[in-house]
Amino acid sequence: MNPVPETSPCQKVAISACLLGLPVRYDGGDKAWPLVAALERLGVCWLPFCPEAECGLGVPRESMRLQGDPEQPRLVTLVTGIDHTERLLAWSGERLERLAAAGVAGFLFKSRSPSCGLGSTPVHDTLGDGRAAPGSGLFARACGQRFSALPQSDAELLADEPALRAFLARLAVTGRV
Fold first, then answer.
1. Distance between CA atoms of 61 and 130, rounded to whole angstroms?
2. Does 5 have pLDDT greater than 90?
3. Please, what is the average pLDDT of the chain?
4. What is the rounded CA–CA span in Å between residue 41 and residue 161?
């Protein structure tokens, strides 16, 4: 793992911190992503983030999920029913400004996360019958709105070599692949 100072000249990719092997998940674990070192060799450096931990929810924390309207879901804890939507959205705005100032070139998200999933996160109770619809985590959604021109992917999608190459091409590092 190679998190760098935000002033480094490499291709800066903001990444879900758990993908770097940092123990920030709700259960104190990680989801280390096997391609981290390979992308570092191509000139990518990491700007790690964990919306849930960084907005003050701590590690470990109660499990959460998205629920309600898929276009404006709420981030709610499973056991206590506490709604953390506004807290996470306020943090997101501040964090996105810091990433912009750092010169972020792209984003890599943890799939199915209520804060970071990119089109892969279930949004529960959207039809009133208990079924879930696909959606994006709150921070991933905010990134898409703020940085729509930058490459953004779910790490699981990049296990497919053509998808990985397309992501790298958008980062302008394919000449070194």
1. 24
2. no
3. 90
4. 17
**Nearest-CA neighbor of 95 among 146, 44, 25?**
146
- Would you call 48 helix, strand, or coil by DSSP? strand
Q: How many CB atoms lie within 10 A of CB 101?
A: 10
Per DSSP, 103 falls in state T
Which amino acid would we find at residue 141? R
| CA-derived radius of gyration, the chain | 16
| Burial degree of 119 (CB within 10 A; 0-12, 13-18, 19+) | middle
Question: 65: how many CB neighbours lie within 10 A of its CB?
Answer: 17
Q: For 50-106, what is each residue's pLDDT tens digit?
A: 999 999 999 999 999 999 988 899 999 999 999 999 999 999 999 999 999 999 999
pTM as predicted: 0.89
